[in-house]
Structures are given as structure tokens and as C-alpha cells.
Design brief:
The protein has helices at about 35-40, 60-65, 65-70, 80-90, 150-155, 170-175, 180-185, 195-205, 225-240, and strands spanning about 5-10, 15-20, 25, 50-55, 75-80, 100, 105-110, 110-120, 125-130, 140, 160-165, 210-215, 250, 260. It is an alpha/beta fold.
Length: about 260
């Protein structure tokens, strides 16, 4: 059976575990190795079961714990070519790291197949992942999205579980403390996805077969779990879907592991 858990999620750092009973992978490792190890332990995950780390992009909240973790646990790192080159050239990896580029072809690791897709975000090259588990489950991971184009929705349709960004409440961002330039960046087409934009997409995901939703990468300053969840719930109710029977909805915690989903 597939296993999925967010180890921590938000503007302070991001990491997700995806796997089966005996082995799996991490997607990103954006806080310290020590805190990541604590989250793994709390989730009942043996660090030796991790067979690779996949990086969505090079921003610090996705790679901060990478170097120290790899110094202790030698696993391959997968990233888009531009991000792989950045990691190699910036001294952010131990010298003996197995660094592999994610390109057009799927990658098979830990009994799973991973397909990558480009996400619209202001980085060297930002990607999301569609994970196919050995027992036929499909998991979509889509964060750091300035907007949600049809091509990404088409990839996510039919996934059993989708983790999707619900980064900010537009009014909280508009009237909050961030400087104008940063607000414009977050609002922009290569910034982050708002609660509203996320919520609008959810009914069509449920209609296409998704039964588990995880709202992720919430802003610390411009969102709260309650506000994000309310936006999603309202949209799903308007679409005629009932929580508990048609879908399960979680919000990924910022500093601790979320609920382990086994399905």
C-alpha cells in the first residue's frame, strides 16, 4: 500500500515522504537534517528506507537540509538539469553525491515510477512530480505555482492523492506587512498559488477520481490553516462533494509531520 506524509510544509521549509511498506523517497528537504530526522522518526519512517531525494527547485525552503543529510545518508539526488548544475557548482552537496538529472523520461526508484512536469515559478527550473506506486496508486505533488495551467491539471486528473499549493489569502497578502515588490512577486504568474485559485481547481480533481487532498506550502504571514481549509471546503461543497465520503482533506502542518496516509 502507498504511504504519503508531509514532514513539514510552508514558507519555512518543505519535505514530503512517498513510498511503500519498505522503501520510499523524499521530495525536498528544506529544513535542517536534525529536524527532518525527527519528523521521520515521529512518522515511523526508517531513514535507511529512503532511496533517493527529488528536488523541486533550488530555493532555500526546499534544499536547506540537503547537504548535511547527504553527508550522513548517501542516496542519489534528482533535480532538473539547471538545478542540478546549481547544486553541483554552489558547493551545497558533498563531493561524492550521486547527482542525476530529471528530464523527459520517467525515473524508477524505490519500486515507484516518477514523472516530472514544469511548474510556473520564479526559479532556475521548478518541477512537480506524478508518482506511480507499485500497486497502481498515483500521487500528484504540485507546489510553487504562480498559476495552475490546464497542462498541469491534466497531469493531476486521476491521481488518488494530490498535494497542491494553497499559499496565501489574497486580502491578507494585499494588506499585510510585505513590501510592494514582494507582494507583486507572490501575486505574479510565476509566484505562488492563492487559496482561491487552489480551491477553484479542487472540485474538478475530485470529479476526476482524486479522493485525498493535501493543502501545502502555506505562507506564514499571509495565510492560516483555518483560512486555507475554509476556502477549499467551501468550493468543494459548492461542487456538491461531501467530506468523508467523496474526499478527505488535510492541511500540511508547518513545523511537524502531517497525517500518514496509507491507501
Amino acid at each position: 500500500m502507498a504511504r504519503f506524509v508531509t514532514l513539514y510544509s510552508g514558507s519555512s521549509g518543505n519535505s514530503v515522504y512517498v513510498g511503500g511498506r519498505d522503501e520510499g523517497i523524499l521530495v525536498d528537504i528544506g529544513v535542517s537534517c536534525r529536524k527532518t530526522m525527527k519528523a521521520l522518526d515521529e512518522s515511523g519512517i526508517d531513514v535507511d528506507s529512503i532511496k533517493a531525494i527529488f528536488i523541486t527547485h533550488e530555493h532555500s525552503d526546499h534544499i536547506s537540509g540537503l547537504q548535511v543529510f547527504l553527508s550522513k545518508h548517501k542516496v542519489p539526488v534528482y533535480a532538473a538539469p539547471e538545478v542540478a548544475n546549481y547544486l553541483a557548482d554552489s558547493g551545497k552537496l558533498p563531493a561524492d553525491t550521486q547527482l542525476r538529472c530529471v528530464e523527459a523520461s520517467p525515473v524508477c526508484v524505490a519500486g515507484m515510477m516518477l514523472e516530472s512536469f514544469d511548474t510556473p515559478h520564479d526559479s532556475l527550473h521548478s518541477i512537480g512530480f506524478k508518482v506511480h506506486t507499485s500497486d497502481g496508486r498515483k500521487i500528484g505533488i504540485a507546489t510553487d505555482l504562480g498559476h495552475l495551467p490546464d497542462r498541469i491539471m491534466n497531469i493531476l486528473y486521476g491521481c488518488d492523492l494530490v498535494m497542491i499549493e494553497s499559499n496565501y489569502d489574497p486580502e491578507m497578502l494585499e494588506y499585510g506587512p510585505y513590501p510592494y515588490v514582494l507582494k507583486r512577486r507572490i501575486f505574479g504568474r510565476t509566484g505562488h498559488l492563492s487559496n482561491h485559485e487552489c480551491a477553484v481547481a479542487l472540485p474538478s480533481l475530485i470529479a476526476a477520481g482524486t479522493t485525498r487532498l493535501v493543502l501545502a506550502h502555506l505562507s506564514k504571514e499571509n495565510n492560516t490553516p483555518e483560512v486555507a481549509r475554509a476556502a477549499a471546503y467551501s468550493s468543494l461543497c459548492a461542487g456538491g462533494f461531501k467530506e468523508g465520503s467523496d474526499y478527505l482533506l488535510d492541511v500540511a502542518p508547518r513545523f511537524s509531520a502531517g497525517n500518514m496516509m496509507v491507501f
